[in-house]
Design a protein that fits this description.
Structural class: mainly alpha
Radius of gyration: 18 Å
Helix content: over 70%
Number of domains: 1
Low-confidence stretches: none
Shape: elongated
Number of helices: 5
Strand order of the largest sheet: 1-3-2
Distance between the termini: 12 Å
Mean pLDDT: 85
Number of strands: 3
């Protein structure tokens, strides 16, 4: 269980570092759709875009101009997903321990 809590803290630190980079170097925060897909996975990016979790920036006025995303937003979404996974893991371990008498 300690491992899960440590992982939650690491994810929070990553998200904080990404947000700090966004503030200090905004130009370094922007990543193209292609780069986002390669780094975070097509399904993850598309799902979060459809859910309204990502800010989309287009640097051109054409309908097919490249989409850009915030690297910090994507890192924060990954961190949130991973924290949820770890919380579920902790809760499942508590449940198992309770039923096996090892609480």
């Amino acid at each position: 269980m300690k491992r899960e809590y440590a992982e939650i803290m690491r994810e929070a630190a990553k998200a904080g570092a990404a947000e700090m980079l966004k503030v200090l170097k905004p130009e370094a925060d922007s990543m193209s759709q292609r780069e986002a897909y390669a780094t975070f996975g097509i399904a993850f990016v598309k799902k979060n875009e459809q859910d309204g979790n990502l800010t989309i920036i287009r640097k051109g006025s054409a309908k097919n101009s490249t989409k850009y995303y915030s690297r910090a937003e994507l890192i924060e979404l990954v961190a949130a997903r991973n924290v949820c996974i770890n919380i579920i893991s902790v809760e499942n371990n508590k449940h198992k321990s309770y039923h096996h008498g090892t609480y």
